[in-house]
């Protein structure tokens, strides 16, 4: 019986045996990975895709005529920038020259009535001490007897008095 | 199924273009969708990128010279569009690519279009942690079963470079999963 001999003409790629273990390790690692992603798509997504994309692809864009010629755009932009700058400077000056006395009381009242000033009695007490509260100069027309009575009728509940110790 | 060569010819003729494009969309929409979805993870984002991919194909088919195969060219456009989309998202939100990917992977937990189990979720998070090129190579090789030679044409990278990137990706994913889940 003739013995099989190793054919000396067979060759392997360079570094094949050196990298063999690494390749096997990677194959084993890979086999443990999930085969599915778990991703799904909405119902009929692929069925409706063809029409959607065809509409989008073949949709002809309307030709847009430029409002200004390119050569004038620079001037327009410069004028716009100057206008914005002047308006902002003018507004800043106006704000800085305003003080509390220049605001009329009707504006302050409507500001508070609109609910923009969210301050309750606790806040006022925290800001002002007893002496300052005593020295406040209320105008008679605001806190007249008539106004106080009206305020009490509207705001004070009978139960407030009952519950008072 | 219409042969690729015939399809290219039809796509380059004005009167046959629309019908040929419909055929092209029909043949490739799912393959391209899944390639994109594995990169961007979210369905709506994948839909946007898929539409952009086909629009680009439609607008540029006239200049397609047939130096590569049509499907190779389309896979390349889809890959580029996916990466462009993610980079744009990162720029708009002023965050890094890694943060975009990390955010997208975390969103999968409550995504109605993700029905994966705990391991599949972890697997997606591990893939999302890879750099963009490795992620692209890994997903296209592992899920789409492209050969290294095909990938080399699509991504215009050498076979040796692809093998090396793929192996590094597998190692990183294995490490990621090991540190986050001992059971795998």
Automatic annotation (TrEMBL), chain A:
Keyword terms, alphabetized: Membrane, Transmembrane, Transmembrane helix
Superkingdom of origin: Bacteria
Transmembrane segments: 72-90
Protein name (Swiss-Prot/TrEMBL): Uncharacterized protein
Organism: Aequorivita echinoideorum
Automatic annotation (TrEMBL), chain B:
Record's keyword annotation contains Transport: no
Lineage top rank: taxon: Bacteria
Protein name: RNA polymerase sigma factor
Ranges where the RNA polymerase sigma-70 region domain occurs: 24-91
Keyword Transmembrane helix recorded: no
Species for this entry: Aequorivita echinoideorum
InterPro entries in UniProt: RNA_pol_sigma-70-like, RNA_pol_sigma-70_dom, RNA_pol_sigma70_r2, RNA_pol_sigma70_r4_t2, RNA_pol_sigma_r2, RNA_pol_sigma_r3/r4-like, WH-like_DNA-bd_sf
Family recorded in the similarity comment: Belongs to the sigma-70 factor family. ECF subfamily.
Domain named RNA polymerase sigma factor 70 region 4 type: residues: 122-173
Keywords: Sigma factor, Transcription, Transcription regulation
SUPFAM superfamilies to which the protein is assigned, alphabetical: Sigma2 domain of RNA polymerase sigma factors (SSF88946), Sigma3 and sigma4 domains of RNA polymerase sigma factors (SSF88659)
């Amino acid at each position: 019986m003739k013995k099989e001999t190793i054919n000396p003409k067979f060759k392997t790629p360079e570094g094949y045996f050196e990298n063999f273990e690494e390749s096997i390790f990677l194959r084993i690692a890979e086999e443990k990975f999930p085969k599915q992603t778990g991703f799904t798509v909405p119902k009929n997504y692929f069925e409706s895709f063809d029409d959607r994309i065809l509409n989008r692809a073949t949709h002809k864009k309307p030709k847009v005529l430029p409002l200004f010629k390119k050569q004038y755009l620079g001037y327009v932009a410069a004028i716009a920038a100057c206008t914005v700058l002047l308006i902002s400077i003018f507004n800043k000056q106006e704000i800085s020259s305003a003080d509390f006395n220049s605001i009329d009381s009707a504006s302050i009242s409507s500001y508070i009535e609109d609910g923009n000033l969210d301050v309750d009695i606790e806040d006022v007490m925290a800001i002002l001490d007893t002496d300052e509260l005593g020295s406040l100069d209320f105008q008679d027309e605001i806190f007249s007897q008539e106004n106080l009575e009206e305020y009490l009728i509207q705001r004070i509940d009978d139960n407030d008095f009952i519950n008072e110790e | 199924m219409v042969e690729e060569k015939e399809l290219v010819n039809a796509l380059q003729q004005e009167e046959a273009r629309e019908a040929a494009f419909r055929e092209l969309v029909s043949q490739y929409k799912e393959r391209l969708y899944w390639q994109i979805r594995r990169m961007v993870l979210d369905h709506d984002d994948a839909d946007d990128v898929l539409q952009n991919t086909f629009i680009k194909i439609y607008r540029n088919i006239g200049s397609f010279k047939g130096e590569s195969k049509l499907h190779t060219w389309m896979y390349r456009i889809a890959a580029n569009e996916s990466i462009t989309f993610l980079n744009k998202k990162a720029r708009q939100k002023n965050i890094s690519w890694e943060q975009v990917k990390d955010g997208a992977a975390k969103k999968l937990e409550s995504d109605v279009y993700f029905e994966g189990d705990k391991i599949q979720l972890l697997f997606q998070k591990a893939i999302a942690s890879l750099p963009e090129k490795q992620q692209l190579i890994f997903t296209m090789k592992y899920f789409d079963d492209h050969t290294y030679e095909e990938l080399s044409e699509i991504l215009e990278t050498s076979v040796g470079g692809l093998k090396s990137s793929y192996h590094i990706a597998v190692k990183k994913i294995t490490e990621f999963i090991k540190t986050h889940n001992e059971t795998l």
